[in-house]
Amino acid sequence: MTFQQFLLIMRARRWLVLGTLAVVVGAALAVSLLLPKQFMAETSLVVDAKSTDPLMGGMLPAQMIPGYMATQVDIIGSSRVALRVVELLRMDQSPVIQEQWREDTGGQGSIKVWLAELLMKKLDVKPSRESSMLTIGYEGSDPQFAAAVANAWAQAYIDTSLELKVEPARQYAKWFDGQNATLRADLEAAQKRLSDFQQKRGIVATDDRLDLENARLAELSTQLSVVQAQKVDSRSRQAQAGNADNLPEVMQNGLIQSLKAELVRQEGQRDQLAGRLGKNHPELARSDAEIANLRQRIETETRRVVSSLGTTSRVNVQRESEIKAALEAQKRRVLALKAERDQIAVLQRDVENAQRAYDLVTQRLAQTNLESQTQQTNVVVLTPAVAPLEPSSPKVLLNTALAIFLGSLLGVGAALVLELMDQRVRGEEDLARIPGMPVLGVIPGSV
User: Fold this and answer.
1) Cα distance between residue 56 and residue 408, in whole Å
2) CB-based contact 305:230 (threshold 8 Å)
3) What's residue 60's pLDDT?
4) Within 10 A of 316 (CB to CB), how many other CB atoms are there?
5) Which one, of 55, 45, 40, 65, lies nearest residue 161 by Cα?
6) For residues 362 and 177, is the Cβ–Cβ distance under 8 A?
7) How far, rounded to the nearest angstrom, does the alpha carbon of residue 322 sit from its chain's CA centroid?
8) CA angle 46–50–53, rounded 5-degree value
9) What is the three-class DSSP state of 212?
10) Has this prediction a pTM greater than 0.85?
11) What average pLDDT score do residues 20-44 get?
12) Lowest-confidence pick of 103-107, 169-173, 379-383, 423-427
């Protein structure tokens, strides 16, 4: 079909096309004028998803913002928010609405749920693509009521979002409160075990006591070494008692040395006396008696010195035994103190771990308590809804334009269908398409 043929068909069926168009446009106008007017009231909200949480200090990642905004849209359209709108507007207390509910449901179910479902049908939530804004719109026959519902819906959403933020914090706070009491009891029990152990053992400062006892142990070890050296030395000197004159104690004894010097002097005098006097002379006898007395005194003093060496050796052996016993006792005391210190260290670690866990839970409890009491939200009403002056529907001009478009399509379609069902020759081209029909001529003005 050529464009010229199409125009010929439209001219031939023009009354059908115009009639169809007139019927469709008239029907659209009639319906638009007869339908009750509806008013759309809208309120705009700003959801600040990027702001820092004043309590937690956290910030929502940028890649999660689209999903976050979609979640907010779902929350706005939820029945929980719709039920709060019913409560805010007290719609369930209206006698007229109660009567409508009884007529519609026969008094079955909840009037609040029934009202919430009705309100949700006329709700329109539109998120912004490039910003963090949400638009809540509600359409109703009364502009004042539509504006009131839109504003109430925004407030209900803000309250619900705050509840969704606070409810987990309240649950955490309750759980942390129970854990706090348990951990406090554990901390007190650990502190009591440590205190009881210290009181039982009389421990004030474990490290100081251990340092003192270690110093005492080192001192006893030094004393033992000294005594052992003295014992070896005294035994060595005692072994030399057969040659007492060569003993250092004898050689260094002043009395013995003075007696020996006196003995030498007396022997010299005797030799002189023996040269001048006879051997039976009284002076010589007296000199011999003095020499014998001196030798006796030297021998006696030497035996005393030698016997003192044995006494010193026995004393050193006894001191060694005593110091060894004291050293062993001191070792046991030091080991006992080390065991006490290790036990106290374990008890102190128990106290520190219990204190750390208690402090952590106490901190989280305080934080969750603050979160559960917060009244701050990241949703702000940008522009509240006002009663619209112009109805949002029906849109007469738009409906008329759509009716003209649809009427034209229906008219043209009807004309083409009729043309296909009843084909006529409307020009030279139509005859040319019929086989065996040559065109002999064209009468001017006949088409």
Assistant:
1) 63
2) no
3) 46
4) 20
5) 45
6) no
7) 62
8) 100
9) helix
10) no
11) 83
12) 423-427
Please report where in the chains the tokens 């010195």 appear, as a residue: 305
The closest alpha carbon to 85, from 33, 149, 132, belongs to 149
Only one residue has tokens 């029990």, namely: 189
Band of residue 82 on the pLDDT scale cut at 50, 70, 90: very high
Residue 165 DSSP SS3: helix
Query: What are the DSSP calls for 76-112, one per residue?
Result: HTSHHHHHHHHHHHTGGG-HHHHHHHHHHHTT-S-HH
Strand, coil or helix: 128: coil
**Do 183 and 358 form a contact (C-beta atoms < 8 A)?**
yes
Express as a percent the part of the chain with pLDDT over 90: 9
- The pLDDT assigned to 153 comes to 92
Cα–Cα distance, 337 to 206 (Å, whole number): 8
- For residue 42, give the 3-state DSSP assignment: strand
Structure tokens at 175: 């759980």
Supply 26's token pair: 């008239």
Quickly tell me which residue has 């040395």 as its tokens. 257
Secondary structure E strands in 228-327: none
Coil vs helix vs strand at 51: coil
- Assign 14 a pLDDT band (cuts: 50, 70, 90): confident
Lookup: tokens for 23:
């019927």
Instruction: Check pLDDT > 60 for residue 115.
Output: yes
